[in-house]
Amino acid sequence: MATLTPDLPVHARSGTPLLFTGATTHTLDPSLGAVTGGLLVEGGTITGVDVDAHPGAHVVDCSGLVIVPAAVDGIDLPGRHEHRLHPLTRGNPATFALVRGGAELESVIWWPRRAAAVVVEGEFGFLAGRRLLPAPTSTTTPVHAESGPRLGTWTDKTQDVVQELTPDGRYTEARNGVQDAYQGAFWLTHDHIAYRDDLGFWAYGTFRDDVLHHAHFTFRR
């Protein structure tokens, strides 16, 4: 990953296309799924997914990393008060994290400051734990791409873990009889859920046939 260097934000701001290669990208788009080809970013937008090359692009070697969508509220963007979790598809904002983890989405759990990099609308917000964009000046609010059917109470078979997803975009999780053991915000998009715990770490899950798969847990209503 020799090209993951502090000069990259200059390339992003100058308008030079960035081609992120070598990573598994979880697009969160059901028609694409996970791809291993390059992710092309021009300006603040994704302009190519699963591409091999692009003339004039600055290649970012992401070997050994996983790319996942991110809903970033630790960054200040002028005129922006809300941040939506967008699938990584053409035309969507280039906001994502490059993290170390397994190829399976459910195994990706990361702390924002420990990510190899966080890209916010085409610019590097964090790189190797260092903040490159200003801290927020106001509190942001989670925005759901969808709601309703996924909300409510989810629990594992033994009911040792009980998770409540509420309409205000918050979750609370009881574990082994301890109420509110984990709390935070969540975002829904298609069949995926992203959690950001109030302590700062992120986790992801997938809905399949009304079953929520999260880490090594299997939840049902």
Automatic annotation (TrEMBL):
Lineage, top-rank taxon, reads: Bacteria
Q: Which Gene3D superfamilies match?
A: Uncharacterised protein Atu4866, PF11512, Urease, subunit C, domain 1
Q: Which InterPro entries does this one have?
A: Atu4866-like_sf, Metal-dep_hydrolase_composite, Uncharacterised_Atu4866
GO MF, one annotated term: hydrolase activity, acting on carbon-nitrogen (but not peptide) bonds
This chain belongs to the protein called: Uncharacterized protein
Provenance organism: Actinosynnema mirum (strain ATCC 29888 / DSM 43827 / JCM 3225 / NBRC 14064 / NCIMB 13271 / NRRL B-12336 / IMRU 3971 / 101)
